[in-house]
Amino acid sequence: MNRLLTTALLLVTSAAAFAQNASSGIFKSVHSAHDVSLATDPGSPFWRGALPVSAEVDAHGKPVPTLRTEVRSRWTKENLYLLYVCPYEELHLKLDPNTEVETNQLWNWDVAELFIGSNFQNIKLYKEFEVSPQGEWIDLDINLDHPHHEDGWTWNSGFQVAARIDRKANVWYAAMRIPFSAIDQRKPVAGIVFRANLFRTEREHSVAWQAPMSDTFHTPEHFGRLELVDKK
Q1: Cα distances (Å, whole numbers) of residue 36 to 76, 81, 86
Q2: Residue ranges of the domains in the chain?
Q3: What is the dotted CATH code of the domain comprising 3-229?
Q4: Which of 18, 39, 53, 62 is most buried as measured by Cβ atoms within 10 A of its Cβ?
């Protein structure tokens, strides 16, 4: 058994007791009473308090077990947190990374992504957040009614990221902390639901939490739901 598949199976086993069922289309983000420093260790008390889901299917719903990506989420009164655990076969990285400023067209390299929207009346309006294995980032204000929705990258959410690569285990980790004020006018409380999807790209390959059933990730009619909950 190769090292990548072994790592993927260990991740599956460690999360199995609390994993959420992707077929439900619901990703539960678990409340935390306090904000924390952004970290990428899934074994930390903060991330152990989350309920993992998996992005493990291609654009049309076919399983891609070698790229199975675990994602966890927590929330506070100010921020939404996400952690991605990404087994990889081969890294595809930008040669001159700059983590101090936004990297336009970051999607041309390996990334983990969140699409999230609070507008249920116009599902073509939502936000996009990306982070690379090197800690590069981009955030976009998406309006699919615009012919060039990628121009939304000039928007600034104020979100923060952290990332690290474990080359011995062939896994990279990435975390996001997104201010709720960037995605919704409401104050976060348990029971609020967002429209959302999760993606991970490795070279020309990608996996999704909810299959977009299209060659583009931008298919909001196939988004799932991210729900804020009090506890596991």
Answers
A1: 10, 10, 22
A2: 3-229
A3: 2.60.40.1190
A4: 53
